[in-house]
Amino acid sequence: MSNQIEPKLIIHGGAGSSLKGKGGLESVRQSLHEIVTEVYQLLIEGKSATEAVIRGCQLLEDNPRFNAGTGSVLQSDGQIRMSASLMDGEKQRFSGVINVSRVKNPINLAQNLQNQEDRILSDYGSAELLRELNLPIYDPLTDLRLHEWIEERKENFTRKMAGVVAENNDNAKRGTIGVVALDKQGRISAGTSTGGKGLERIGRVSDSAMPAGNYANSQAGVSCTGIGEDIIDECLAAKVVIRVTDGLSLAEAMEKSIQEALTNQRDLGAIALDYNGSIVWGKTSEVLLAAYHNGKNIGDCLEWDDNKLIGNG
Known about the structure:
By secondary structure, the protein is an alpha+beta fold. The chain is built from eight helices and 13 strands. The two termini are 26 Å apart.
């Protein structure tokens, strides 16, 4: 194809409070940059946006630092229940799993469901799909997350949720991972995966397997992170994408949507790309753990000015 465009990529590892003074900043930056490097190479090689998103989500799920896949937080009963979704913007098709257990990469189940008639499954359906696919049983529990749950149990789960980044004495919260990619053919896809809020009521559902938290069409793609209920109440991902489709620039759509979220006292963040190759992120939370490749270099927003609602890559 002669008129190929320059691929773009943005990923996130959650949102929350400050990483300062915890030794977390550089290690999180290194993890994110390594994943951006590997996934962007796939786009350079001509892989589709969907393939890149799936690989990015797998790498983030496999990193125990982030609250998705391995290293997921425990719900109040001590069980891990993960959710993930994939949206192919070219086909404008959404698929996902809700509260799945005992699988290494929930995004793989979302991928399998892309071409099914029934494309969003809850816990029982997800478990049945696992069996059908003969995927190996996997325990995503880490010692750190188990210890976190045991400590909270002593306090009868008085904290609202678990930590976003798995580090000792870490008080950063609100963990999800996400990837949005634009490929050489101009196609956009978005993927989002989470271990949930942690310590929550059994069976609570996050935004990550809903269009509120993960949405894409031919114009733009968005992945969200933060308090799931806040993201759902704003219908944030779909809202930003629809505003771009209706004629706003990606920056305008993000700024308007984040400003509304701020007015409504929401706690959230979002990453986004559009078909022109614009890279934009926004947050009301203190920190957004996002990194990107703009075609020339890798950057991130880990030390981004707190006074700004949105940023550009």
